Amino acid sequence: MENSKKHSKMPKVTILRWGHRPHRDARLTTHVALAARALGASGFILSDIEDESIRATVEKVTRNWGGSFLFEMGTPWKKVVKNWKMNGGIVVHLTAYGENIQTSGVLQRIKESEKEILIIVGSQKVPGEFFLEDFSDFNVAIGNQPHSECASLAVFLDRLFEGEELKRNFDHARMKIIPQKRGKKIIQHL
Amino acid sequence: MENSKKHSKMPKVTILRWGHRPHRDARLTTHVALAARALGASGFILSDIEDESIRATVEKVTRNWGGSFLFEMGTPWKKVVKNWKMNGGIVVHLTAYGENIQTSGVLQRIKESEKEILIIVGSQKVPGEFFLEDFSDFNVAIGNQPHSECASLAVFLDRLFEGEELKRNFDHARMKIIPQKRGKKIIQHL
Questions:
Q1: Nearest to A161 by CA among A39, A73, A51, A48
Q2: A75 Cβ neighbours under 8 A, 6+ residues apart
Q3: In whole angstroms, what is the distance from residue B93 CA to residue A30 CA?
Q4: Which residues in chain A are contacts of B146 at CB distance < 8 A?
Q5: Taking the mean position of all CA atoms in its chain, how far away is CA B25?
Q6: What is the predicted ipTM?
Q7: How far lies A188's CA from each of A60, A64, A66, A130, A167, in Å?
Q8: What is the residue-level pLDDT of chain B in tens, covering all 190 positions?
């Protein structure tokens, strides 16, 4: 059975995690990466720094739970952004200061671009350059309150993919949860 | 100007954070609390344990950014749940094992109950009791993949409130961000 995707509705999305500090941000960065994977992103780039423990965790989840989520680390963020734009993609910067996704037409404009999307999420205060046109095509806020980049990323992806990302099947999964009203049900391929 | 809310559309929601371990979960629990506040919840309960640093952080955000987000800590989770149900509220447990919010009617059933909602989010593996009828009325998964309770909570709230939570005004705010396509704009009341 052929499974064709409407690419104009399911854009390809990569997450760029800026500002990761090993140990200090270990769990949060892991959560950002796993949320990205679970909510439809194709890959994750840990910019400027290498962190083997994060990579090991994320790749283990991919190995067990399936799919082809790409993990990259160490690349300088400016290089990532420059290459992305050179290849015709757009850059979305998630920030509390950006256009409110609920009250502006920013998401519609992003969808209409029909381009591959690089989403930049920072862990702490980001360089001012992130807001500039040379770097970000769109600055998007999930409400204009300080909260969590993990929460913001999740809501952004869920809205971008219109919930369809939660229906997708992960190829070559060794483990799969069967949803239950009560209790836990897992299928394991050994 | 009178501002009336349709309570059947904007249920009152409290978050119960189970399994918090001081230091280890400091940032993640803070993110969960701030995401809850930013995405429409009325309050947050840190169960079973006290953590002054979390409370200080969350209450500072509320003081600066406005609104009336309640923070409680130390209460045993069983007591919270018991009282909640006794007062006629429902309990939603967010878990990767639950009914998939996208493919089941679970969210609709939750909305139709028209009751106050206690959302339980755990930090690690939760007790089996959380899945039982005595404790949770609904077990809900934001996709059936392992990812982040912060991401799950955010998507759940955004869907529950249908995005309206991102339009709300926070009373008595000392600081307020004015959304921008580029740059940062804040209004501060001193």
A1: A39
A2: A45, A47, A48
A3: 22
A4: 34, 38, 61, 65
A5: 17
A6: 0.94
A7: 15, 9, 12, 43, 19
A8: 444 444 446 899 999 999 999 988 999 999 999 999 999 999 999 999 999 999 999 999 999 999 999 999 999 999 999 999 999 999 999 999 999 999 999 999 999 999 999 999 998 788 888 999 989 999 999 999 999 999 999 999 999 999 999 999 999 999 999 999 999 999 998 6
Radius of gyration from C-alpha coordinates of chain A: 17
Nearest Cα residue in chain B from A161: B102
At residue B16, the 3 state secondary structure works out as strand
A128's CB contacts (< 8 A; 6+ apart) are none
- With vertex at residue A120, the alpha carbon angle to CA A118 and CA A125, rounded to the nearest 5 degrees, is 170
Distance from CA of B149 to the nearest CA of A (A): 8
Q: Is there a contact between B144 and A184 if contact means CB atoms under 8 Å apart?
A: no
Q: How far apart are CA A36 and CA B59, in angstroms?
A: 29
Contact call for A99 and B180, based on CB within 8 A = yes
Could you identify the residue written with the tokens 């897992």?
A186
Determine the Cα–Cα distance for residues A110 and A140; give it in Å rounded to an integer: 10
Q: Give residue for tokens 């992305």.
A: A84
- Tell me if A98 and B143 make a contact (CB, 8 A cut-off): no
Q: Do B164 and A102 touch (CB under 8 A)?
A: yes
